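Handout, section 4.2: multi-component inputs.
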Amino acid sequence: MKRIFALLLAMLLLAPGAAAAEYDPDVTINVYSWGEYIANGTDGSMDINAEFTRRTGIKVNYTTFDSNESLYSKLVGGGADYDVIVPSDYMVSRLIDEGLLLPLDYENIPNYQYIDEQFRSPGYDPEEKYSVPYTWGVVGVFYNTRYIDEVTSWESLWNDEYAGKILMFDNPRDSFAIAQFLLGQDVNTTDPEEWRAAADLLKAQKPLVQAYVMDQIFDKMESGEAWIAPYYAGDAAILVDNSEDIDFAVPKEGTNFFVDAMCVPKTASHKREAEEYINFLCEPEISGANMDYVGYSTPETAAREYLDPEVAESPLHYPDAETIARTQIFVNLPGETSKQVDQLWAEVKMGGPGESAVLVAIILGFLGVYIAIIVYKRRKRKRELA
Amino acid sequence: MKTNSRLLSAPYTVWMTIFIVLPMVLVAYFAFTDKQGSFTLENILSVGQYSNVFLRSIWLGAVATAICLVLGYPLAYIIAKLPAKRQSVMVMLVMLPMWMNFLLRTYAWMTLLEDNGLINAALNAVGLPKVHMINTAGAVVLGMVYNYIPYMVLPLYSVLTKIDQSVIEAAEDLGASDSKVFLKVVVPMSMPGVISGVTMVFVPAVSTFIISKMLGGGGNLLIGDLIDMQFLGSAYNPNLGSAISLVLMVMILICMGIMNQFDDGEDNGKGGIML
Amino acid sequence: MSRTVGRLYTFLIFLFLYAPILVLIVFSFNDTETASRTVFSGFSLKWYEKLFEDRLILEALRNTLIIAVAAAAASTVLGTMAAIGINSMKRLPKRIMMNITNFPMVNPEIVTGVSMMLLFVFAVGVFGGRSLGMGSIIAAHITFCLPYVILQVLPKLRQMDPALYEAAQDLGCPPVKAFFKVVLPEIMPGIVTGMIMAFTLSIDDFVISYFTSGTTQTLPIYIYSMTRKRVSPEINALSTVMFAAVMVLLIIVNVRSSNSGERAGKGGGQG
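Output:
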């Protein structure tokens, strides 16, 4: 009912004649998504973007980001006009709250019907107005079985036997969540003390961490450069399937359950074509072919039959109910908390907060040297003249 | 004729006002306002929290600059002593890597420095133990030295070739030893080259964010990383980012002032480099 | 300093400068299934084939070339005009102009980049318009190329005998014609070097493009995103192709300007 009303409203707002417009096949849409997050034609997969262009004529300028936070920065401050973006749950609700998304016209996305009931009216978009789920998954730990026998707890990431071989997420939410699970906190806490405790745990881990990375994890794990790394379960399709030494585990303390959803930002210039693209990706056959390669879980039961049965039945890609019961979902943090988190995160990465006095001293030191030199030269010149 | 000619630079003046002066005004504006656009000192004051990052950047930048100078000076000296024809070939060889994409060059070092990289493979082959190099402060310095050493060699070389040979001969005739000639004649006369070399290495080294990202593993945060984080990275806050940029700029301008004090020459353009 | 020591030293420095490039080139011919970057398992050209089939890379290359041509052309014209203007100025205004010119060269690149990003986003907010893209990258590139052009042209103007231009006018040549017939040929070497510098600086630029590109991909931006992902040896093939192209370009430049006196390095910082 609500959707029909929205549609009527949209039609009223649109110029006459433009109602229920056909898409324009001559445009290029800008899609901004995660790295390694679409089948691209390699390893015998379907080239999804090329297929879309073949069917509709619409070209796709596909670029990638590596964390929700950098997506947000680019969207808000980078002056980029993306047509389709794929943020995670908590970022979707932040973008909705800040009025940065366009309401979708679900009439143009008939394949929305295939989205499973459990992904309808999600917490991040309760009115189902702005988003269409793309994938879901959990976070876990990838480890190299040549060096590490078994991982059952997040504590392995603090094990100093693996010093220098540990990778960590290069974004605040995912990194903090790991510390929070270890401390038994709620990942969405607004208690500054709890965040501080989590930050202290991360700071203690820093000397053991080889690098803070996102998609470089593939390279570093495959080459054996790193032994253990937390990452998204879906990437097992690349890591575990390509390398016999790498295994995956979901730690017992619990983990993050995420849904990444397709949205159209307010600055989009080709909304109609963006919806066509979203609709295309929701087509069960396409979704199946896509997820078969990508390895993340599809929110469409109908798509599962197009998956390689090995993938569809793998607990890596479709974790069991018991694992899912141990998960928490991120929600958007209030402004104050998120500011604190940003600050703590910078502290973790630079190893503790600094003193303002030091900075002032540096600048004054420079100035002092400057003045001393000028004075010295004046004197010298005077002496030479004398 | 003169008035007409002067008008020719009007479009340039307008252009630079829009694209250099105005952006700087914007940076200053953002640095002193909050998200709602009202005046605040909070951003500038909170830059102090990142003094560790500033210290590390300045330290690594200074070490890299010193290494560039120590490695680059002898090379420039050797090149300047070569016959003219070989000189231009050598200069070109110094410049050539610089014209290759900077990201690719730095990426190549990842391949070399990794724990399972080529250097360690070579060490292994001769029976030596592995050395951990990637993702350390040393790797960041190495990346800086590698990327910016040509900026040191070129100005040094161009100053050294200009030293009048007869001055050196005169010193020798007066009985100065080789080392004395070098220390008392060559080095002082090449000071302008040292100055521009030092500045041209130090400024980009101190503000880099790619080298620390690629070779430092994200744990060796530099000022550049901090600024990138506030604008396109994981902690969107252009106001704080602008404040950090402003502090960085002030610091560099002071350094520049110090450097200029060593350079007594008139500001007549000698080649492309003048500060 | 003994000659052997000198030679050895030079050799070591060049080894340091060229080793990474050599590694990139060698591994671009690596025949490997997985993206191993450290084990050479046979000769193959397949990464080159993949490279030239990669639509995104080719598009990024096209964008990069369009931007470089536009930026080099505009900054050469604007910069030459400005140099002539500055050259005929009195001491004080000249000083001010030179300071403005030098500023972007000494200002950290990242600060220039973010400040322009602020400007463009501000402009989009005020005047509307679509977003950042080719237009903003070209404007930004013109800005950082201008000082290099000016600093190449100015010395040539200074070396020129002003009496030449006046003589031409005395002989009845109109000012515009006198400029094209007398001044331009004199300063041409400076203009050409400046233009080539602007072109290569623009092609190589990452930092400023990164902040001003919006959704547009240039080659350096694409390379950056490649290094952030699972790395494919395509990147090595790309390096090799670019290295070869730069070599050819450099040889042309060198032949052209071998008699135009000393050249300054490609100044300014990056990264």
